[in-house]
Amino acid sequence: MTTTDAGRLPAGANPGAGIGRKLGMTLLYVVLIAVAVLQLYPLIWLLFFSLKNNQEVFNLPPLSLPTNPRWENYEKVWSAGNIDVYFLNSVWITFVATALTVVLGSLVTYAITRMKWKSSKLVLGLFMVAMMIPVHSTLIPLFSLFSDVGLTDHPLALILSYVAFNMPITIMILLGFYYALPREVEEAAVIDGCSVNRMYFRIVFPMTVSVLATTAIINMIYNWNEFIFVNTFISSDVYKTLTVGVQNFIGQYTTDWGAIGATLMISILPILLTFLFLSDRIVEGIAAGSVKG
């Protein structure tokens, strides 16, 4: 590469291009910072909201600090408001439903993409059609079904509903990744006498950890925030989750807004921390699943 003089730009280089690139990057960062601030605004507002009493909620500006931060709002909702019970219910129901959905979805996707059988395309089509069924249209049939089999006001009703409605999107995410898996590995395993079950759990399953982590995170976010099924199928406080527990602080004549804010803050933190630590996994898994070999 020739240069006009030592220390100068290469011959033919456009000095304005470098300046334009820097201005473009600066503008991009400014826009991204502005978007980040807009995204953080509701969280900051909710934090201040949860530390106020009813008078401060309505009389002070939204982003103003409370005159006397009421951390006791968190203590009150955790003990007197049964939020500890609701929180544990949300944790174990979310975990069980997510684990079942990921394992079953992975098995179904493996059978559809890696095994040859007559009705594989039909089964895949049925799962994809299920994605178009609105949740609200199934509430009455599901409630009637669970009533007949004695599962109303039982956490199993929630787990079964979550697994059924999350299975199609789980399979859709896994499809591209499973299609891209090299068949040579499976053929070598068959030659060595490996059974289908052992092949899946010892070879295929470890190869799909990244995309399985993605589906697990997506399922967990949905299950943790779900409200309609809990509000419809569960009536006992013993089995309620955080999403409906907030209603305990809404009375006929008065509402404890600070306690509601504390409950919402408690419900948001676990899913927010999970997303912050595992967001790279979501991008990695979706990118891997978008390539079909």
UniProtKB/TrEMBL annotation:
CDD domains: TM_PBP2 (cd06261). The chain crosses the membrane at residues 27-51, 86-110, 122-144, 156-179, 200-222, 257-278. Keywords: Cell membrane, Membrane, Transmembrane, Transmembrane helix, Transport. GO terms for cellular component: plasma membrane. GO terms for biological process: transmembrane transport. Belongs to the binding-protein-dependent transport system permease family. This is Carbohydrate ABC transporter permease.
